[in-house]
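Whiteboard transcription, Tuesday session. T.W. wrote the C-alpha cells on the left side:
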C-alpha cells in the first residue's frame, strides 16, 4: 500500500520509516489510525489527459531505443551504469509481468508481493534501488553539486541500499545526500511558500537544460517542518516529444514513458502523486530542475 499520513510517508520512491526497516515492509503494513487517504495508484484518472506509451525496459528493442535517446543528452558511462541496474532488476522480476516493447500508457499496477518475493529470494540483504539512486546515476555527470551542508535524515534506506549494494563511492554518496537533502520549511499548506524554499535550495545546483530532473516534492512534519524529494525521474527531449525515465520504488519497476509534451509529463506526476499528503500538510508539487511547475 502507498499512503501518506500526517508526518509519515509510505511506499512511493522512499518510505519514511521510523521503526520500519524496508520499503517492502512499509508497503505491506501501512495503515493509518487518523485518515484513510486514497492510494496514489488508484487516484490516477481512468481517462488520462495525456497521450503516451511506456515500457518497463523488458525487451531488447525497448532497451536499445531508450538507451539511444538517453545517450543523446547524457554521459555514456552514466547511461551504461543505469542500464546495468535495469538489467540486474529485470532479470530477477521479469516473470512478474513487465512490459516489453512500448505500449499505450494510462496507468500501471504491479504485483508488488510477487516482485518482492522474487527479489528477496535473490537479494535478502539488499533492498535494491529507487528513483533517487537511478536519477543520480543518470544525471551526476551532467550537473554540478556544490559542497553544501547536507541533511540526510530521510535518506537512511537509500544510504543502506548504497552501502549494501556497493553502488557509490564516498564522493558520490556525499553528493547524492546533498542533492536529495531535507529542506526546512514553514508550517503552512500554502504550496507557494514551500515551492520558493525548494527553488532557493535547488538553485545551488547547476542542472542541464536538456536532461532535466523532474521531482515530486512532499511536505513532512514528523520531525519539524520539512520538504523532501519523494519521487524523481529524468526527462529528455526526443524528435517526437519527450521521454521520462523513472524507477517507481525500491520494489516497483522501471518505467520509460514517451509523452507528446513535457506538460503531459507534469500532469502525469501531479495526478499519480496527488494523494501523497495529509492533515496539515501541503499538497505535493513538481520541480523541473530548480523551477516550480505552477
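and on the right, the sequence the group agreed on:
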Amino acid at each position: 500500500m502507498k499512503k501518506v499520513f500526517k508526518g509519515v510517508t509510505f511506499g512511493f520512491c522512499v518510505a519514511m520509516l521510523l521503526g520500519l526497516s524496508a520499503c517492502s515492509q512499509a508497503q505491506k503494513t501501512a495503515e493509518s489510525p487518523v485518515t484513510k487517504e486514497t492510494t496514489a495508484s488508484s487516484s490516477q484518472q481512468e481517462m488520462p489527459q495525456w497521450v503516451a506509451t511506456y515500457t518497463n525496459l523488458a525487451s531488447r528493442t525497448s532497451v536499445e531505443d531508450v538507451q539511444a535517446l538517453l545517450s543523446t543528452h547524457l554521459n555514456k558511462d552514466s547511461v551504461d551504469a543505469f542500464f546495468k541496474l535495469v538489467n540486474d532488476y529485470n532479470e530477477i522480476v521479469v516473470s512478474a509481468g513487465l512490459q516489453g516493447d512500448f505500449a499505450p500508457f494510462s496507468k500501471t499496477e504491479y504485483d508488488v508481493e510477487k516482485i518482492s518475493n522474487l527479489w528477496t529470494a535473490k537479494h535478502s540483504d539488499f533492498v535494491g534501488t529507487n528513483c533517487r539512486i537511478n536519477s543520480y546515476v543518470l544525471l551526476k555527470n551532467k550537473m554540478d553539486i556544490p559542497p553544501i551542508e547536507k541533511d540526510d535524515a530521510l535518506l537512511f534506506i537509500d544510504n543502506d541500499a548504497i552501502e549494501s549494494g556497493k553502488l557509490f563511492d564516498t564522493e558520490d554518496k556525499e553528493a547524492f545526500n546533498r542533492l536529495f537533502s531535507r529542506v526546512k520549511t514553514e508550517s503552512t499548506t500554502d504550496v507557494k511558500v514551500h515551492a520558493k524554499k525548494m527553488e532557493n535550495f535547488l538553485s545551488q545546483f547547476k542542472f542541464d537544460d536538456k536532461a532535466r530532473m523532474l521531482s515530486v516534492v512532499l511536505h513532512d512534519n514528523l520531525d519539524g517542518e520539512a520538504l523532501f524529494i519523494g519521487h524523481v525521474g529524468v526527462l529528455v527531449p526526443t524528435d517526437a516529444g519527450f521521454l521520462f525515465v523513472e524507477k517507481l520504488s525500491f520494489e516497483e519497476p522501471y518505467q520509460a514513458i514517451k509523452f507528446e509534451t513535457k506538460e503531459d509529463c507534469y500532469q502525469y506526476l501531479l495526478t499519480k502523486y496527488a494523494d501523497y499528503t495529509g492533515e496539515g500538510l501541503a499538497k505535493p508539487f513538481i520541480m523541473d530542475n530548480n523551477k516550480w511547475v505552477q
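Someone added at the bottom: The two ends are 29 Å apart (CA to CA).
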